[in-house]
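Entry 14: structure prediction run for Histidine--tRNA ligase. Input pasted below.
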Amino acid sequence: MENQKNFLTTAPYKGTRDFYPDEMRLRNWMFSVMRETVLSFGYEEYDGPILESFDLYKAKSGEEIVERQLYDFVDKGERRVAIRPEMTPTLARMVAGNLRNLPRPVRWFSIPNLWRYEQPGKGRLREHWQLNVDLFGVDSFRAELEILLIADSILKRFGAPEGSYQIRVSHRKLLDSFLKNTLKLNADQVHGVSKLLDKKSKISAEAFETEIKPFLDDATKQIPWIEKFLSSDLQSVSEIPEIDPESVSFIRDLFGELQALGVTKQLIFDPSIVRGFDYYTGCIFEVFDTNPENRRSLYGGGRYDNLIGLFSKEQLSGIGFGLGDVTFKNFLEGHGLIPNLNREKTVFLPIMEESLFLETFKLSKELRENGILAETMLDSAKIGKQIQTAEKKGYRFVLFLGESEISTDTVQIKDLISGEQKSLPRNGLSEILKKDFQL
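Run finished. Output tokens:
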């Protein structure tokens, strides 16, 4: 009996994806819409290395990322390095390294590939791509105004209908003043309660109450205040004792100008928004999907002070957000926003006869030189089989160049959707295809 060969698996590494051409078309379309939207606001694209020093993440990333989710190793030069789990540390290093040469405000964006070692699940993988948009050097709420307008414009550019998403906004100083001044919590208590508030929506009310009691001095009195704070609106939040009035005014002014710009029904004040406790220092926000089957946060961000503090004595305030491709793709699918991405803008040229290969190739070359996408078969199989190939590849239009077409200086074009076929002149063919067939 012959020994059976053990073949390698064709499955990708757990928590990652293969992008076959169909998936790649979708990914490229998503990124192109994001990129065009952010570019329209005057932002510039940047990138950095996927490998950074481990020390960079140890200093700039949260404890959970560094201790549980980081892909790190010692390289051949005995340096401890890590695959980037987020873009902010790289961004901080780059901005600090060229700060004096950067005109203010600094408007940058990137769509990096990121890695985190975590349990894969719906909307969460070990490898993903993320749109990062950041604005530096503006201390007034006009920075928040622009960033939130970009966050809203991205969804509108994808055709998101009214009511399909919510932009929930709050301020870290509101939460800080509530925890420290209203509830009279110390630093350890503030940290513990903030972490629990951040996951409150993911656990039951009973579990939340059980877990939060150890951090409170008088749970009977303090828990009702917590519930009142979390359910307050922009009017009632100012009624909470010793709440920070400047933050309330800040959010009210911000909402007034956003509403004047058309961001109205989707805009919500939500003091339950916490986000990174050790990271954000000012206005914070999250964009939520309202689809009952995917009711979750799509992306979010906020203001952070002194991004470059580890690298420079200079101060620089910034604000930004990150939008992951996995959750966003779920949003687009859930609301039916993905268009037909078949290859209908490319013409397909079969080889009618072996002797006509060079003439057919010349025609496709001529089309490409005039801005028409064209694929030419390289073997002269039966025409029916070549047409099947075109259909499988998602093409709509097929151009036929046979002996009779060459003798009459014409081509035949067939629409594989309607079945219609007609003759076109070879002279000016590219312009005809662009004008009459939208190629």
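Notes: The chain has a mean pLDDT of 92. Will compare against the previous run tomorrow.
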